[in-house]
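Aggregate trends can hide what the representation actually does to any particular protein. The sequence in question and its structure tokens are set out directly beneath this paragraph.
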Amino acid sequence: MFDTLKALCEIDATSGGEKPVRDYIISRIDGFCDYRVDNLGNILFEKKGKTQADKKIMLDAHMDEVGIIITDIDESGFLRFATVGGIEKECLFFHRVMINGKTPGVISGRPIHLCKGESAKQLPDYDAMYIDIGAENKAEAKSLVKPGDLGVLSGEYLTEGDKILSKALDDRVGCAVLIELIRNESEYDFCGSFSVCEEVGSVGAKTAAFALDPDYAIILEGTTAADLGGVTPEKQVCVLGEGVAVSFMDRGTVYNRELFNLALSAEGIKSQTKRGTYGGNNAAGVHTSREGVKTLALSVPCRYIHSTSSVCSKADVESMYSLAKYLISAIQKL
């Protein structure tokens, strides 16, 4: 599973540009389930289990990662851009980017020694930043990139003991777990989606849920962990190494209480309650589909999420796999 995760994280796939990661996922699940690609680019699949399921369960993980989109090129050859998904300014300034998988650059802005007063103490606003790709002028830059091209923040995949450091852990952890579930034997049938464009608003998962029409849904996701020095326990949200995080509510969803309690009561599987109602995920689009879907989110805690140096625990990824596998069977007995 972790070789799969490494391969997934090393692929660049911003919202709207998921094809490279989609192709890789298809190469991993082909022959283990029935699947198709819909009009938006979601992979919709059906996995046969040893026993036919009475209740239809959907699992979802999103393929896209946060990134940037080129909006303009100035006369000096610098690129103006917008973010695709939520990225803090601190995660942008002086960071390397890769555009179209082949053109490197660095995000910059007005030099600090030219800033005066309070502006010298602050990062530039988003619209004051630009990308330097080393072009001498606009014509040279246009020969390499154009407005509408997508890019990602560049980051190396590293491991140390139980910890993984990488870009795109949100949500390649969910994709890796879902691939592993598909490639292994299941007690019951289940279906699901590898969805597009979560980082810009649950776009793909909403249409996937409509197409699959499930009774229950489990969203596999990465979530913010703030278990850091100086952060009080009630603000830490979840903690690395304490197991997969189970949500009761976030900004987009109040989760099904029966599923929430079922997940936390699983014996022998390490889990934790996600403390707080921060953030959101594809559940917001899934649970309101058609006549409603009973939905739960399982999340791997990730420090420094949406940065090039997000960190998670291998043990938490494994507990997500174990709890998702358990729920596929346990839901059938509700």
Summary: The domain at 67-153 is CATH 2.40.30.40 (Elongation Factor Tu (Ef-tu); domain 3). The chain is about 25% helix and 25% strand.
